[in-house]
Each structure stands twice: as structure tokens, then as C-alpha cells.
Amino acid sequence: MKFKGIIPVLLVLVSPLLYADIVSYIATQQSYLENWFINENIIVLRNQSLIKCSLQCGILDECMSISYHKGSKECIGVTIGYIVQPTSLGYTSVGWSYYLVLDERCPDVTGYVFDKAFNSCYKVHLYDNTLRYDNYSQICESEGAKLMKIDSDEKQQHIVTFLDQFDISNWIYFQGTHLLSEPTWRYDDGSVISYFNWYSSQPDSTTSDTSEYLCMRKSDQYQWHDCWKSMKGAFICELQLI
Ligand SMILES: *[C@@H]1O[C@H](CO)[C@@H](O)[C@H](O)[C@H]1NC(C)=O
Ligand SMILES: *[C@@H]1O[C@H](CO)[C@@H](O)[C@H](O)[C@H]1NC(C)=O
């Protein structure tokens, strides 16, 4: 089930001029979380209709999804977009449904979530042995996205919280590469990367290939390594909204 809620956001720019900007959000039901109550990372919202519930979530920066009880109209905001159901997340409770709240400009592809703080739609693709590094950005592009840019500590912390629900033991790739002949790390558009979150002892250039790529893994608290193309992994696609 999918429905759209139109949220008019009023912005006072230059008094006394009043500009109205329209942002619209889509709530998509996640059927694997039917009859499941979430009791972590929650924000208690007003008890109200499903549409109002998703609109209220839609205007809160920290709210990425909602848990809603049809009978009592109870409305709970959740600060993470859940894609899988970790057993620690809650418990069976009849009547509760779970919805991701997405900006309508996000890719219409299963697995994307939307975070308002970074104005970013993103999705994790799990490890697939048939894919190589070159496929990762191709796949993101086929979804209208790119490999994710992690360019601040806040974004790193945010994505770590999201990644923890999957329990990925493989390398996880995101955007960033450098030529062994040049120490500067760059995003895909050639701009220079200035935020890093290196694991101790990293980066540790080797001569196995002509380029290295940013990656991280859970066993190193998601701190970063310089990986080679031959090290296959999971990857994160992102559509940055403007
Ligand atoms: C919503 O309804 C439930 C159950 O009827 C009640 O326990 C809770 O306090 C209400 N929450 C709010 C924010 O009104
Ligand atoms: C992976 O990349 C190779 C080489 O570019 C291409 O032939 C293949 O179709 C890609 N696979 C997928 C699943 O995109």
C-alpha cells in the first residue's frame, strides 16, 4: 500500500513576503513488519489518522518511518528506516503496521529510505558474489543514484546506525577512490575528499592495483580502509536531493 501526503511548508524569507514550498512524502507499508510493535528508536507522536501520522513524521528531521495502529490510531515515529526486522527491534503485537516515509523524489526501488537531515535517499545492496566493483556504481546509476558520499561525522554515525540492522560482515563500499600514483582521494566527479574516518593503520597503500577505493566493515566499527577492486562487498547507493 502506498499513499501520498502533501505537506505545505511555509517559509518566511523576506518579510513581509511569504513563499509556499510544497514537499510531498510517500508512506510505503513494509509488510514484513505487519503486526509487529517497534520499541526502539521511537518518537511518540499524536494519536491521529494514518495520513496525518505520516505527515507529522514527514516534517520532523529525525523521523524516517512510522509504526501505526489502525484500531487505536496510535502513531509512533521511528528514527531509522528499517528494511529488515532485527529480533531486538520489538515484539509481535496485533494491529500495528510499519511504513517508511519517503520523499517522492526518491528512487521508486525497494530498499530505499529517506533521511531529511541529509536530504538523502539511500539503499544498501548486500554482498553478491556475481558482482564486481565496477558494477556497484552502474547499479546505483540504473536506480537513478550514485555510490553514497559520506562527508561528515554526522553522516557516518547516521549510516552506521542504519547499517547495524543488516549485520553485514563483508566490506561495504561507498564513494571515493585514488590512483596509487596520486595520494589525493576523490569523489567520482573528481572533487577532493576532505572528510575521512580511517581505521587505525589505514590507509596503507599497496601496489596490488593502480587504484584504491573507500570501504569499511562492521568488525572495525565501520572505520574506513583502502580496498582493492578484487575485494568484493556490499555497497550503498544514494540519491542526494537538492
Ligand atoms: C494514544 O493512545 C494510547 C492508547 O489509547 C494512549 O495510551 C496514549 O497515551 C495516547 N498517546 C498520545 C500521545 O496521546
Ligand atoms: C557487471 O559489469 C560487467 C562489466 O561491465 C557487465 O558485463 C555485467 O553485465 C555487469 N553485471 C550486472 C549485474 O550489472
TrEMBL record:
According to the lineage, what is the superkingdom? Eukaryota
Which Pfam families has this protein been placed in?
Lectin_C
Q: Which SMART domains match?
A: CLECT
Which UniProt keywords are present, listed alphabetically?
A: Signal
C-type lectin domain: which residues? 117-238
Q: Where is the signal peptide?
A: 1-20
**What InterPro entries does its record include?**
C-type_lectin-like, C-type_lectin-like/link_sf, Ca-Dep_Lectins_ImmuneDev, CTDL_fold
Designated name of the protein? C-type lectin domain-containing protein
